[in-house]
Amino acid sequence: MVTESFIKELAKILGRENVLSARKDLLAYSYDSTPERGIPEVIVFPHNTAQVSAVMKAIHREKIPVVPRGAGTNLSGGTVPTCGGVVLELSRMNRILEIDTANRRAIVEPGLVNLDLQNALAPLGFVFPPDPASQKSSTLGGNVGENAGGPHCLKYGVTSKYVCGIEVVLADGEIVELGGNVEDIPGYDLRALLIGAEGILGIATKLVLNIVPLPKTSWILLAVFETLDGASQAVSDIISSGIVPGALELMDKTSCWVIEQSISAGYPTDAEGVLLIELEGLGDSLNRQAKDISEICRKNKMRELRLAKTTAEKTILWQGRRGFFGAVARLCPQYVVMDGTVPRNKMVPTLRQIGKIAEQYKVTIANVAHAGDGNLHPLILFDVNNEQEKKAAHEAGKVILKTCLDMGGTLTGEHGIGLEKLGSMKTMFHPADLAAMHHVKSIFDPDSILNPGKLLPAEEDNSHHERKEIPV
Ligand SMILES: Cc1cc2nc3c(=O)[nH]c(=O)nc-3n(C[C@H](O)[C@H](O)[C@H](O)COP(=O)(O)OP(=O)(O)OC[C@H]3O[C@@H](n4cnc5c(N)ncnc54)[C@H](O)[C@@H]3O)c2cc1C
Description:
Uridine Diphospho-n-acetylenolpyruvylglucosamine Reductase, domain 2, 4 domains, 18 strands, five-stranded antiparallel sheet, seven-stranded antiparallel sheet, 16 helices
């Protein structure tokens, strides 16, 4: 329980202007990008590692729950303060500390927005490959917390591949460094444990990131298909042919329609499936890749292939895909988005099954996918004021995740478990696996104060913090 004297203590550490506890401020931090809700008791904005450490020492002493937060764009309820307590927002720790192109490293604070790093790297001819569609607002600390992916992670790999070292403040306020500035540090790779840990093991306060040179040239192919089966089979065929495009994204008819209502990116609204394929390389190799891909797509009932070579043509196509979630929100502010990943050769049966689930539960589902990775994002739309629709959307979501598991896939490719997929963790993992995960949590955070109730399902959780149902 946060008392007035505790708030005063936080204000002494951080300055009054960096501590918020007015009702309107608490409401502003009661949600993230999901329909989940929970109200905090105080929000703090540290500016440096020493302040994070001092705040954590006070929190640890009082055994108060704390939710680390970047921009709150996660799609799994990971930053909803369901147990009340403190929201520790890292957005003021947003400096680039060093860019070292010779060693291909960037050292940054966790509150730095992903796109701000990309904008600093591009003039130097470099890029940080993980590029979530939320990159205009999501922070690198949040990207690490969720092990974020993005369209270019098909070729380059997700966030975990690009984090070399992490400075972490532990639950008791101790500051430790995991990994470092060079690869191949001997001993246990504890750095890897923190990536995708959703803020339940420690708070990242500094990140040593790998950066790579920007590709010299890129083209985009927009392949338009008569059937969704054709588009998804083409994905599998492209990858099995040995071609690894820079990005390979899929959108169904509903998604293209939604995008066109908002962004007018030039996607067809009458085709059942569309692939956005980015090719990287130099002249001859680009021609060859485009020819091979075109042949594969034609065999899968492609009706049209467009080629974008200029920056303007490429930008508008990417704006359409990256703007999809925002475009949906304009039409239907509430949706649940699934994030299951299936083996690429199971995309056709999985998408067919998702179509049947939509019919069965009488819900509208729009599908986009980081298809090259088999990472599906079915968006299930619902009216938040219609209890029956809301229930149907959540039920349909669970069945979709079960389908992904049955196809040999996983619950999440990049959005994390948070609150939304807690129940499904028991479907995916054996009780012994979950017990082992709780054991690791208890070593880092014996009092379960760090983001309690997230990632690991509650029954095995020895947390003393109850979920607080507070009317918002
Ligand atoms: C429109 C839209 C598009 C999206 N597209 C993608 C996409 O293409 N790919 C993708 O992967 N995701 C995507 N997302 C989801 C989301 O943007 C990512 O999960 C992102 O990584 C979250 O960053 P954030 O700064 O908002 O983190 P938050 O939501 O604030 O936090 C995410 C998790 O990380 C923890 N955390 C935050 N900061 C720290 C820290 N410093 N130390 C330890 N833990 C921390 C939090 O406790 C929480 O569990 C999208 C979201 C939206 C709204």
